[in-house]
Structures are given as structure tokens and as C-alpha cells.
Write a structure and sequence with these properties.
heterodimer; A: about 240 residues; mainly alpha; 11 helices; about 80% helix; globular; B: about 300 residues; alpha/beta; six-stranded mixed sheet; four-stranded antiparallel sheet
């Protein structure tokens, strides 16, 4: 708990988090405004079409993962891993605190991201005379899925940061995986690709695209990814010397 | 006797390089020990092993009788600074300290207290990237002092400090040790810490070369004790009886070879001979240090 308080202060006390939040807000606003205003009304009428647009809040997962990555990599980049490890010599406790802090910051990113997309998107729908056809249950699934998914991406980021302490390497690994590798695998081998973290997290928000996992399975798969990366990251953290 | 630090056959290998080689030493409470060696001698690696940051390939080290990682809240007993640059440049000095305080359950006020102690309160809320090297050294020291520790471990703390900063550090460490606390301070320049330390551990190529007081060190490598007395003949006889050879540059002065001031003073006292001057001459400490560390170590 003490280390968690320290980690939360670390997140708040630099401009990195603010920068990521500003980036998320700008991207969410830009995408929602452009998509909702420029798409023909005929493409915004079905539940699937509306869910597709309103699920863009899941982009917060990228920002949450980056924030999670920074929790470890900035410690190595700036050498603060030394005082951090001296003040908390128990690597298990240190990792757990960062893992929880990554999830909590991801949760906030998720609320902000999905909150912006949903409120602005539905507002523009109204202005254009388009009613929300999604059921209350589906909207709830979308919100909960986006927020929980983003929180889990924060935790996944912590695992990646522990495995790849080099900040540039970790960020490139994340982006290359999320935007290239996964899409290729899902495109060619959807039966495998749907078990990969980005597509499994998408599944948590309801039926957005074909061939995806059921929502509850999606949650379990993303949790499994977060825990697997955590186990590997913690093992490396315990083994690696702090130089 | 329980030592504050015990290093037993500590060794660290990185691939083909043996960075630390069978290093054993002890540090007693209430002392300031200089940990000396040229760059690359293995000082920083040794300190990291003592502090649980690096795992020894062989051997072990304890602090207050336990490995660092097994101490209950080690940062409340041991304060350490390993690099002067271990700060996020975008974080304020105060937030850096608050973050470390929270990790060990200390109140934020403790961060303000140590900032005042190292005379950094004016810059507390400024981001570290605007700090000079001297200010960063002080901030590092402040972080080490957060837990009000009994032992300070400092790796090259005088690096980049101006003479005023070096004097400030010396006074600070002297005051710290005067309250029965212990300091282990590393440096690659003996002169930098010669006026601060009581004892020295000198390593080269990862091996312990010597462990002694500064005075013993000087005497061992050809040091000479100059002593002035109104009875130089009697004193010379007394010293000869103890196996110490002397020479007589003038009427009232004796030069005693290969001994220490303490020993000459004790012998004079035992003989009831008054002495008016007692000082160590000979090779400069830096020369001694360079001599010792430049010796080729054969495996």
C-alpha cells in the first residue's frame, strides 16, 4: 500500500501523464467529431454501426499501455530505479504496486476516453437527428468493456515495461504489436488472432466485428495476457541486476 | 564483534570480466571509511552488491547482520546515493523526496525537513532539470537521509562539487559520524576524501589492496614521522629499542622511519620525553594511492 501511494504520486508528479491524457482527449475528440459529422447518416443507423463508432474510446487502451510502460521504463531511463529499489527492496511488492497503479491509471484513461466518445458521439447523433438504437444493456457493455479493457491495458503496459526496460524498445514493441502484428494475424488467421490481446479487448465491448470472441471470454483472455506478461516481467525484474 | 557492514568473499563476474574478486572487509560503527580505487576498479559494483541491487556471483554481504533486502524497511536504516543523476528531470526535488517517503510510510513533512537539512528548500518545488550538479548531489543526499539512517553509503558524492561543496559535504559527514553513525564513501581520488575519512579500503582490479587508517597507509609505503623534542638523543635511543630507525636532520629534530605518529608519541610518553612537534611526512597520500593501485595484479 505504501509503495502504491508512491507509484500514484510518480504518475501525477511529471508531465508525461498529462501529455498522454491531452493526447487521448485530442484524439478521441478528433475521431468522434470527424466520424460522427462526416459519415453519411445511412451508415449510422444500425446497432453494429453505432457501436463501431462509439467503441473508439477503446483507443484509451493504447495510452493506458504507454502510461503503464512508463512506470518501469522511465525508472530505468532516468536511473530512479536505483532509489526506488533501495526504498523498496522487495521486488514482488514493487511490481505489484506498479501493476495496480497501471490498472488504476488505465481505469481513469478508460473513463475519460469512452466518456468523451460516448457523450460527444451521441450528442452529434442527436444534432443530426439520429437516434441511439443501441440497447441499454449494449451501451453498458460498451462502457464497462472499454473501461475495464483500458485498465487491463495499463497492467499489460506494466508487464511490457518490466520485460523491455528500454523505453523506445518497449513503446515500439507495443505499437508494432497492436497496429501491425495483431491485425495481420487476425486478418489471416482469425481463429488465432481473436485470442490476441487487442482483439480480445475489443470483444469485451460487445459485438463490434465478426469472428471475435464472446465478451466474457474476451475478459478472461485479456486478464490471462496481463497476468502472463506480469509473471514474465516479475521474473525478469527479480533476476535482473540494477546497475 | 558485530560489524555494520560485512563483506565475505564477494565476487561478481560479467561474462569474461571479473569485476569484483573475492573481496572481504568489515566496517565498524561510528567510522567514516573511504572506499578507494581507480575508475573501473569495482567500487560501484561492490556497493550495488552490498545494497542488494546486484547479485554476487560468489560470496555474500550483510548490513547490520542481514542481507540488505532482508532488513525490515532497509531505507530507514541505510541511506545510499549511487548516482548524482537518479532523478526524473521533470519532477520537482520535493516530489522526488515525497515519492520516496511514501514508499516507506514517512510523512511528506520529512521531505521538507531533509530539504532544509541540505539547504535546498528554496529550490524544492523547481523541476530537477534546472538543478546544478551540486544541487543534485545534495538532493541525492537528502533522499539518503529521509529515513534518518544509521549508515550512509555514498558513491563518488564529491564528483563535480566545487571546493565549497566539498567542504560542506566534509563537514556534514563529520557531523553525521560524530553521532555514532557510520559512513562508507567511495572515490577514485584520495585527496578528495582524505580530510574526511578515518579509514581507507583500497581496491584495484576488483581486489582488496589495502585496508588501514590513512596514517598507517602513509607509514607503510615509506612514510616518515618528524618529531621535535628537547631530548632527541634519549628519544632516538627509546625508538631504537623498539626497532624504529631514526635520523637527525638538526639538533632538535628526529626523523623516524616506517612508523606512525601514535607509536612515536606513545614511546615518548612512556619515556617521559616532551615533544614539541609530531607529524607524518614522506610520500603524499595521492602518490601512495597511485602506487598501490597501479600495481599489476596477477590472477
Amino acid at each position: 500500500m505504501k509503495q502504491l501511494r508512491a507509484e500514484l504520486l510518480k504518475i501525477r508528479s511529471t508531465r508525461t501523464t498529462t501529455g498522454l491524457l491531452v493526447g487521448l482527449i485530442a484524439l478521441a475528440l478528433l475521431f468522434t467529431i470527424l466520424t460522427c459529422t462526416l459519415s453519411p447518416i445511412s451508415q449510422l443507423l444500425t446497432e453494429r454501426e453505432q457501436a463501431n463508432v462509439l467503441s473508439f474510446g477503446s483507443v484509451a487502451g493504447v495510452f493506458a499501455a504507454l502510461a503503464g510502460i512508463m512506470l518501469f521504463t522511465s525508472e530505468y531511463r532516468f536511473g530512479t530505479i536505483r532509489p526506488t529499489s533501495l526504498f523498496n527492496a522487495d521486488r514482488n511488492r514493487l511490481f505489484t504496486a506498479k501493476f495496480i497503479a497501471g490498472m488504476l491509471s488505465g481505469l481513469i484513461f478508460g473513463v475519460i476516453g469512452e466518456g468523451i466518445v460516448l457523450s460527444v458521439g451521441v450528442g452529434i447523433f442527436k444534432l443530426r437527428g439520429v437516434g441511439l438504437v443501441m440497447s441499454g444493456a449494449n451501451v453498458t457493455e460498451l462502457i464497462v468493456g472499454a473501461v475495464i479493457g483500458t485498465a487491463l491495458w495499463g497492467a499489460i503496459g506494466v508487464g511490457i515495461g518490466a520485460i523491455v526496460p528500454n523505453q523506445v524498445g518497449a513503446v515500439i514493441s507495443l505499437l508494432a504489436w497492436g497496429f501491425v502484428v495483431e491485425n495481420l494475424v487476425f486478418g489471416f488467421l482469425p481463429t488465432i488472432g481473436r485470442f490476441l490481446p487487442v482483439h480480445a479487448a475489443d470483444a469485451m465491448m460487445g459485438s463490434i466485428q465478426d469472428k471475435q470472441l464472446p465478451g466474457d471470454v474476451g475478459v478472461m483472455v485479456v486478464v490471462a495476457w496481463a497476468l502472463t506478461l506480469a509473471v514474465v516481467g516479475l521474473a525478469l525484474l527479480r533476476r535482473r541486476d540494477v546497475t | 564483534m558485530t560489524y555494520v557492514i560485512e563483506s565475505v568473499s564477494l565476487s561478481k563476474r560479467y561474462g569474461d570480466v571479473l569485476a569484483v574478486d573475492n573481496l572481504s572487509f568489515n566496517i565498524e560503527a561510528g567510522t567514516i571509511t573511504g572506499f578507494l580505487g581507480p575508475n573501473g576498479a569495482g567500487k560501484s559494483t561492490t556497493l550495488r552488491m552490498l545494497l542488494g541491487l546486484a547479485k554476487p556471483t560468489l560470496g555474500h554481504a550483510t548490513i547490520f547482520g542481514k542481507p540488505y533486502g532482508e532488513l525490515e524497511e532497509p531505507a530507514l536504516r541505510v541511506g545510499a546515493v549511487l548516482e548524482a543523476t537518479d532523478f526524473h528531470p521533470g519532477r520537482s526535488g520535493r516530489d522526488h523526496l515525497r515519492m520516496l517517503s511514501r514508499a516507506v510510510g514517512l510523512p511528506d513533512k520529512r521531505a521538507d525537513d531533509v530539504l532544509e537539512l541540505v539547504e535546498l528548500q528554496e529550490a524544492a518545488r523547481r523541476r530537477v532539470k534546472g538543478y546544478s550538479l551540486g544541487m543534485r548531489q545534495r538532493l541525492g543526499l537528502a533522499s539518503a537521509l529521509l529515513g534518518d539512517p544509521d549508515l550512509l553509503v555514498l558513491d563518488e558524492p564529491a564528483n563535480g562539487l566545487d571546493p565549497e561543496g566539498v567542504r560542506w559535504l566534509r563537514d556534514f559527514l563529520r557531523d553525521f559520524a560524530s553521532r555514532g553513525r557510520t559512513v562508507l564513501i567511495s572515490s577514485h581520488v584520495l585527496a578528495e576524501i582524505a580530510q574526511t575519512v578515518d579509514r581507507v579500503l583500497i581496491i584495484s582490479h576488483g581486489r582488496l589492496i589495502t585496508e588501514s587508517t590513512l596514517e598507517e597507509l602513509t607509514a607503510r609505503v615509506g612514510g616518515v614521522v618528524r618529531v621535535q623534542s628537547t631530548r632527541p638523543d634519549q628519544l632516538a635511543l627509546a625508538l631504537h629499542r623498539e626497532g624504529i630507525s631514526t635520523s637527525r636532520p638538526n639538533d632538535h629534530t628526529l626523523l623516524a622511519q616506517g612508523t606512525t605518529r601514535e607509536r612515536v608519541g606513545d614511546i615518548a610518553l612512556a619515556e617521559g620525553i616532551a615533544i614539541h612537534e609530531l607529524l607524518t611526512e614522506g610520500s603524499s597520500l595521492e602518490e601512495v594511492f597511485l602506487d598501490l593501485t597501479s600495481e599489476v595484479v596477477t590472477p
